[in-house]
Amino acid sequence: MEQYLRETPLLDFSAANIQRLINDKLWKQADEYHRIKLIYNYVRDEILFGYNIDDGIPASKVLADGYGQCNTKGILFMALLRGVNIPCRVHGFMIDKKLQKGAMTGIIYRSAPKYIFHSWVEVCLDGIWYELEAFILDKGYLSQLQNINSTCSGTFCGYGVAVKNFHNPIIDFERNNTYIQSEGITQDFGIFDCPDDLLKKHHQEMSPFKAFLYRNFGRHLMNRNISKIRNGK
Q1: Which Gene3D superfamilies match (predicted)?
Q2: Which residue from 27, 59, 129, 187 has the highest number of Cβ atoms inside 10 Å of its Cβ?
């Protein structure tokens, strides 16, 4: 299990802000199950759904931002888990951009790649590996989506969601897998020890010009739109 506990440049759990958070939350005092559950809930709901400057930023930066998406929230989740001695790994995918429609709008959506890089975190507890994906969307944002689409029953795809049961998705960790975008997966890249290794082999393909526009303009518009949804505007 040593490879699933090591620190890496992205999983920088020795960083001062991460160590401060771990100590303030007293996570090390909990048993393994509750360590995972408490950290999972924190990353899901206290780190809001939003788009950072890049997928490959360290956990300490994600924590400082206070928001993230699948890849960046996953990096923070893994760093916090390893920081309290919980083994974890990352599973990489591509997803159809259709599940981002609504979070992405207008020209941003039209110009986005057809397939978007995605990952979830796998956590080992009592010898069982659990697939955890539903930390991506904070409950505040998801609840507003469910209110806006109150007549929808069954499958839903859009606004960062791709699930079979929109009003009862499996988002709470109780020694089970959790999913929120899994129905949008189009390609499976497999399991990696750490996000550093995954991103060396697979990442979002984007031209330098589009990457510049995303970093400096597109993501800010997307975050503003997500904030409006979360706040019911």
Answers
A1: 3.10.620.30
A2: 59
Going from the C-alpha of 67 to that of each of 46, 51, 134, the distances in angstroms are 8, 7, 15
Q: What pLDDT does 206 receive? A: 82
Q: What per-residue confidence (pLDDT) applies to 210?
A: 85
- Whole-number Å distance between alpha carbons of 35 and 81: 8
**Which amino acid, one-letter code, is at 160?**
G
CB 83 within 8 A of CB 64: no
How many H helices and E strands in the chain? Answer: 9, 8
194 and 6 Cβ atoms separated by less than 8 Å: yes
Tally of residues, the chain: 233
Low-confidence ranges of the chain (pLDDT < 50): none
Coil vs helix vs strand at 188:
strand
> DSSP 3-state assignment of 227?
helix
Measured distance CA(114)–CA(139) in Å, rounded? 27
CA distances from 163 to 10, 99, 152, 160, 215 (A): 29, 10, 12, 10, 28
Distance CA 75, CA 58 (A): 7
- What's the pTM? 0.96
CB atoms within 10 A of CB 98: 14
Helix segments in 46-177, DSSP class H: 59-65, 70-83, 106-111, 139-148
> Torsion over CA of 185, 65, 13 and 177, rounded to 10 degrees?
-30
CA atoms of 61 and 67, how far apart (whole Å): 10
